[in-house]
Design a protein that fits this description.
By secondary structure, the chain is an alpha/beta fold. It is built from 9 helices and 14 strands.
């Protein structure tokens, strides 16, 4: 595989973890980083051995040596940043949530297809060996017919009306920020829901602090999901079948342990994990680019569109 120069938009914690993940991807070059201030970009570049630092997103996007851009900016900027990159002819890996709503995402996807540019949501969990193994186990029939998913994600966050977690204009709310992980797993294993019900407790800013979700799916399947900024939840996932249960332990969205419980006995599933986990999604992007693909078959744009439509239903139900 040829080498690819990565440009990083944003200098927050997730950008740092992604660049660290690139170290375990053959052919990946952490070439450039951009922030809204040159000082932050230079600090990030020096800490992570990035070659070029830009004090504006536009300068990085217009650098002809950048092959692909990872968007790690706040949620409310994903839409405009993605459009800017695509209009410049750049391949894009955009951090989750892909956008704030389906209207934005449909426009992003349409532009990528018209420009014939690669576009993918950075739902890194999809590419982890743990998730591949769970799919294999479910398909093998080891737990019989799967009928129920129980999954949650929650941590206690200090309330601050200006925080990105609680500010609606910044794409705040537990569903968009962390509830997306249980929803992703539910859709991956059971498909797009046929019915969605949710209840939320909201902050004074109007964003959800805690949300409970019940989804029904084809083949008489159901998902019981929750997300919260008010309390720490187990942040694990269970796939319950007619003959047993597969458990992804805390934190299920990261490289984690898997166990199978069947006939009263529990056994651990051996796994080999490379790097910090972010390397797997970067590797998928580069494989797609090397094959001249404009989207991933492992995480197609249709999947992200369906996921955003479900999130829209939940958020609109809250209002």
């Amino acid at each position: 595989m040829k080498s690819y120069n990565w440009g990083i938009l944003g200098t927050g914690n997730i950008a740092r973890r992604f660049v660290e993940g690139l170290l375990d991807v053959k052919g990946a070059v952490a070439y450039a980083v951009a922030s809204r201030t040159e000082e932050k970009a230079l600090e990030f570049a020096n800490q992570h051995s990035v070659q070029v630092a830009y004090g504006s997103y536009a300068d990085l996007v217009n650098d002809p040596l950048v092959d692909v851009i990872y968007i790690a900016t706040p949620n409310n900027l994903h839409y405009e940043n993605t459009l800017m990159c695509l209009n410049a002819g750049k391949a894009v890996l955009c951090e989750k949530p892909f956008a704030l709503n389906s209207t934005q995402l449909n426009e992003m996807v349409a532009l990528a297809q018209s420009k014939k540019c690669f576009l993918m949501e950075a739902l890194w969990t999809r590419f982890l060996p743990t998730i591949d193994k769970v799919i294999t186990l479910v398909d093998s029939g080891i737990i019989g017919e799967p009928h129920l998913i129980k999954a949650d994600f929650g941590f206690k966050a200090q309330y601050n009306l200006e925080s990105r977690l609680f500010d609606a204009s910044l794409g705040g709310g537990s569903v968009l920020d962390i509830g997306i992980y249980p929803l992703f797993l539910s859709q991956l294993l059971f498909g797009k829901p046929t019915h969605v019900t949710s209840l939320s407790i909201k902050a004074p800013t109007g964003t959800d602090i805690t949300t409970g979700m019940v989804l029904t799916h084809p083949k008489d399947r159901m998902s019981l999901l929750a997300s919260s900024f008010a309390v720490s939840l187990e942040t694990k996932a269970e796939i319950v079948g007619t003959e047993g249960t597969i458990t992804l332990h805390r934190m299920f969205h990261m490289p984690t342990d898997i166990t199978i419980t069947k006939d009263g006995k529990t056994k651990k599933v051996p796994l080999k994990i490379k790097g910090n986990g972010y390397n797997y999604e970067a590797d998928e992007v580069m494989k797609c680019l090397s094959e001249d693909k404009i989207e991933s078959t492992k995480l197609p744009l249709s999947f992200s569109l369906d996921l955003m439509e479900t999130i829209d239903l939940i958020i609109n139900d809250e209002l």
